[in-house]
Amino acid sequence: MLQAWKLFKHYDTNDDDLLSPYEFQLLLRTVLRERYPRAKDVPRELFKEAIEIQQTQISVTFEDFLTWITRNAFQECLLLTDEQRFIRLVARRFYVSVPDVEKVKRRFDSFCQANPGLLEYQEFCQLIALLLNLRDTTALPESRVKSFWRELDDTGKGSVDFTEFIPWYLGYFGGDDGSSLVNFYRRIRPTVFEDD
Protein backbone atom coordinates (compact mmCIF):
# COMPACT_ATOMS: atom_id res chain seq x y z
CA MET A 1 0.00 0.00 0.00
CA LEU A 2 2.92 2.31 0.72
CA GLN A 3 4.24 1.79 -2.81
CA ALA A 4 0.81 2.62 -4.25
CA TRP A 5 0.66 5.79 -2.12
CA LYS A 6 4.13 6.89 -3.27
CA LEU A 7 3.18 6.30 -6.89
CA PHE A 8 -0.08 8.21 -6.42
CA LYS A 9 1.75 11.14 -4.80
CA HIS A 10 4.30 11.18 -7.63
CA TYR A 11 1.50 12.12 -10.04
CA ASP A 12 -0.27 14.45 -7.58
CA THR A 13 1.36 17.58 -9.00
CA ASN A 14 -0.84 19.95 -6.94
CA ASP A 15 -0.11 18.03 -3.72
CA ASP A 16 -3.83 18.09 -2.86
CA ASP A 17 -4.29 14.29 -2.65
CA LEU A 18 -6.30 14.38 -5.87
CA LEU A 19 -5.38 13.47 -9.42
CA SER A 20 -6.82 15.06 -12.50
CA PRO A 21 -8.19 12.62 -15.09
CA TYR A 22 -5.02 13.17 -17.15
CA GLU A 23 -2.76 12.48 -14.15
CA PHE A 24 -4.75 9.34 -13.40
CA GLN A 25 -4.17 8.08 -16.95
CA LEU A 26 -0.44 8.76 -16.59
CA LEU A 27 -0.44 6.86 -13.31
CA LEU A 28 -2.20 3.88 -14.90
CA ARG A 29 0.25 3.86 -17.81
CA THR A 30 3.11 3.73 -15.32
CA VAL A 31 1.48 0.85 -13.44
CA LEU A 32 0.95 -1.07 -16.70
CA ARG A 33 4.23 -0.18 -18.45
CA GLU A 34 6.12 -3.30 -17.40
CA ARG A 35 3.43 -5.63 -18.77
CA TYR A 36 2.60 -3.42 -21.78
CA PRO A 37 5.66 -1.38 -22.87
CA ARG A 38 3.70 0.24 -25.71
CA ALA A 39 0.63 2.22 -24.63
CA LYS A 40 -1.34 1.08 -27.68
CA ASP A 41 -1.07 -2.55 -26.48
CA VAL A 42 -2.82 -1.91 -23.16
CA PRO A 43 -6.26 -3.57 -23.19
CA ARG A 44 -8.93 -0.90 -23.34
CA GLU A 45 -10.90 -2.45 -20.48
CA LEU A 46 -8.11 -1.44 -18.10
CA PHE A 47 -8.65 2.20 -19.04
CA LYS A 48 -12.45 2.05 -18.94
CA GLU A 49 -12.70 3.80 -15.57
CA ALA A 50 -10.03 6.33 -16.51
CA ILE A 51 -11.91 7.23 -19.68
CA GLU A 52 -15.19 7.57 -17.76
CA ILE A 53 -13.45 9.81 -15.22
CA GLN A 54 -11.94 11.91 -17.99
CA GLN A 55 -15.36 12.41 -19.57
CA THR A 56 -16.86 13.60 -16.27
CA GLN A 57 -13.78 15.63 -15.23
CA ILE A 58 -13.96 14.19 -11.70
CA SER A 59 -10.78 14.21 -9.64
CA VAL A 60 -9.40 10.87 -8.51
CA THR A 61 -8.68 10.11 -4.87
CA PHE A 62 -6.20 7.59 -3.52
CA GLU A 63 -9.17 5.41 -2.55
CA ASP A 64 -10.33 5.49 -6.19
CA PHE A 65 -6.88 4.32 -7.26
CA LEU A 66 -6.96 1.48 -4.71
CA THR A 67 -10.41 0.52 -5.99
CA TRP A 68 -9.03 0.38 -9.53
CA ILE A 69 -6.15 -1.84 -8.37
CA THR A 70 -8.56 -4.13 -6.52
CA ARG A 71 -10.87 -4.46 -9.53
CA ASN A 72 -8.14 -5.02 -12.07
CA ALA A 73 -5.20 -6.70 -10.35
CA PHE A 74 -6.41 -10.21 -11.13
CA GLN A 75 -7.69 -9.73 -14.66
CA GLU A 76 -6.48 -12.25 -17.22
CA CYS A 77 -4.98 -9.53 -19.40
CA LEU A 78 -2.58 -8.60 -16.59
CA LEU A 79 -1.68 -12.05 -15.33
CA LEU A 80 -1.61 -14.26 -18.42
CA THR A 81 0.32 -14.35 -21.67
CA ASP A 82 -1.51 -13.92 -24.97
CA GLU A 83 -1.30 -17.69 -25.53
CA GLN A 84 -2.76 -18.46 -22.08
CA ARG A 85 -5.61 -16.01 -22.68
CA PHE A 86 -6.29 -17.60 -26.08
CA ILE A 87 -6.45 -21.06 -24.49
CA ARG A 88 -8.95 -19.82 -21.90
CA LEU A 89 -11.02 -18.12 -24.58
CA VAL A 90 -11.18 -21.37 -26.57
CA ALA A 91 -12.06 -23.37 -23.45
CA ARG A 92 -14.95 -21.01 -22.64
CA ARG A 93 -16.18 -20.90 -26.24
CA PHE A 94 -16.31 -24.68 -26.60
CA TYR A 95 -17.30 -25.46 -22.99
CA VAL A 96 -14.23 -27.59 -22.31
CA SER A 97 -11.74 -27.39 -19.49
CA VAL A 98 -8.59 -25.31 -19.76
CA PRO A 99 -6.41 -28.38 -19.01
CA ASP A 100 -8.03 -30.20 -21.95
CA VAL A 101 -7.15 -27.37 -24.33
CA GLU A 102 -3.64 -27.14 -22.87
CA LYS A 103 -3.18 -30.89 -23.38
CA VAL A 104 -4.16 -30.60 -27.05
CA LYS A 105 -1.79 -27.62 -27.38
CA ARG A 106 1.14 -29.58 -25.92
CA ARG A 107 0.45 -32.47 -28.26
CA PHE A 108 0.05 -30.12 -31.22
CA ASP A 109 3.39 -28.48 -30.46
CA SER A 110 5.12 -31.85 -30.07
CA PHE A 111 4.20 -32.75 -33.67
CA CYS A 112 5.26 -29.46 -35.29
CA GLN A 113 8.74 -30.66 -36.26
CA ALA A 114 9.36 -29.17 -39.71
CA ASN A 115 8.02 -25.69 -38.88
CA PRO A 116 7.55 -24.88 -35.19
CA GLY A 117 3.99 -23.70 -34.60
CA LEU A 118 2.78 -25.06 -37.95
CA LEU A 119 1.32 -28.51 -38.47
CA GLU A 120 1.76 -30.16 -41.86
CA TYR A 121 -0.29 -33.04 -43.29
CA GLN A 122 1.92 -35.95 -42.15
CA GLU A 123 2.17 -34.46 -38.67
CA PHE A 124 -1.60 -33.93 -38.70
CA CYS A 125 -2.16 -37.64 -39.44
CA GLN A 126 -0.01 -38.62 -36.47
CA LEU A 127 -1.60 -36.04 -34.17
CA ILE A 128 -5.15 -37.11 -35.03
CA ALA A 129 -4.27 -40.75 -34.34
CA LEU A 130 -2.85 -39.76 -30.96
CA LEU A 131 -5.73 -37.46 -30.01
CA LEU A 132 -8.31 -40.08 -30.99
CA ASN A 133 -6.42 -42.79 -29.07
CA LEU A 134 -6.06 -44.95 -32.17
CA ARG A 135 -3.62 -47.79 -31.63
CA ASP A 136 -4.00 -48.78 -35.27
CA THR A 137 -3.62 -45.77 -37.55
CA THR A 138 -5.62 -47.56 -40.24
CA ALA A 139 -8.67 -47.51 -37.96
CA LEU A 140 -9.50 -44.10 -39.40
CA PRO A 141 -9.73 -44.33 -43.20
CA GLU A 142 -7.18 -42.27 -45.10
CA SER A 143 -10.00 -40.73 -47.13
CA ARG A 144 -11.53 -39.42 -43.89
CA VAL A 145 -8.19 -38.01 -42.72
CA LYS A 146 -7.65 -36.31 -46.11
CA SER A 147 -11.17 -34.91 -45.93
CA PHE A 148 -10.43 -33.53 -42.46
CA TRP A 149 -7.19 -32.00 -43.72
CA ARG A 150 -8.83 -30.34 -46.74
CA GLU A 151 -11.46 -28.84 -44.47
CA LEU A 152 -8.87 -27.65 -41.97
CA ASP A 153 -6.37 -26.35 -44.54
CA ASP A 154 -9.05 -24.70 -46.66
CA THR A 155 -6.55 -22.22 -48.13
CA GLY A 156 -4.29 -25.00 -49.40
CA LYS A 157 -1.14 -23.52 -47.90
CA GLY A 158 0.02 -26.92 -46.62
CA SER A 159 0.09 -26.16 -42.91
CA VAL A 160 -2.14 -24.95 -40.09
CA ASP A 161 -1.38 -23.24 -36.81
CA PHE A 162 -2.96 -23.92 -33.44
CA THR A 163 -5.48 -21.08 -33.75
CA GLU A 164 -6.86 -22.83 -36.86
CA PHE A 165 -6.59 -26.35 -35.49
CA ILE A 166 -8.18 -26.11 -32.04
CA PRO A 167 -11.60 -24.73 -33.06
CA TRP A 168 -11.77 -27.34 -35.83
CA TYR A 169 -10.72 -30.16 -33.49
CA LEU A 170 -13.11 -29.20 -30.69
CA GLY A 171 -15.91 -28.61 -33.18
CA TYR A 172 -15.67 -32.23 -34.29
CA PHE A 173 -14.22 -34.10 -31.36
CA GLY A 174 -14.76 -32.02 -28.23
CA GLY A 175 -17.26 -33.10 -25.63
CA ASP A 176 -17.88 -34.20 -22.10
CA ASP A 177 -17.82 -37.97 -22.32
CA GLY A 178 -14.11 -38.28 -23.03
CA SER A 179 -14.34 -40.28 -26.27
CA SER A 180 -13.39 -38.14 -29.25
CA LEU A 181 -14.71 -40.60 -31.83
CA VAL A 182 -18.02 -40.99 -30.01
CA ASN A 183 -18.36 -37.20 -29.98
CA PHE A 184 -17.54 -37.03 -33.69
CA TYR A 185 -20.14 -39.61 -34.71
CA ARG A 186 -22.68 -38.10 -32.34
CA ARG A 187 -22.30 -34.80 -34.22
CA ILE A 188 -22.54 -36.21 -37.73
CA ARG A 189 -25.30 -38.72 -36.94
CA PRO A 190 -27.37 -37.32 -34.11
CA THR A 191 -29.77 -39.73 -32.47
CA VAL A 192 -32.26 -39.29 -29.71
CA PHE A 193 -31.61 -41.41 -26.65
CA GLU A 194 -34.19 -41.92 -23.99
CA ASP A 195 -33.23 -42.57 -20.41
CA ASP A 196 -34.67 -45.77 -18.98
TrEMBL record:
<dbReference type="InterPro" id="IPR018247">
    <property type="entry name" value="EF_Hand_1_Ca_BS"/>
</dbReference>
<dbReference type="InterPro" id="IPR002048">
    <property type="entry name" value="EF_hand_dom"/>
</dbReference>
<protein>
    <recommendedName>
        <fullName>EF-hand domain-containing protein</fullName>
    </recommendedName>
</protein>
<feature type="domain" description="EF-hand">
    <location>
        <begin position="1"/>
        <end position="34"/>
    </location>
</feature>
<feature type="domain" description="EF-hand">
    <location>
        <begin position="140"/>
        <end position="175"/>
    </location>
</feature>
<dbReference type="InterPro" id="IPR011992">
    <property type="entry name" value="EF-hand-dom_pair"/>
</dbReference>
<keyword id="KW-0106">Calcium</keyword>
<dbReference type="GO" id="GO:0005509">
    <property type="term" value="F:calcium ion binding"/>
</dbReference>
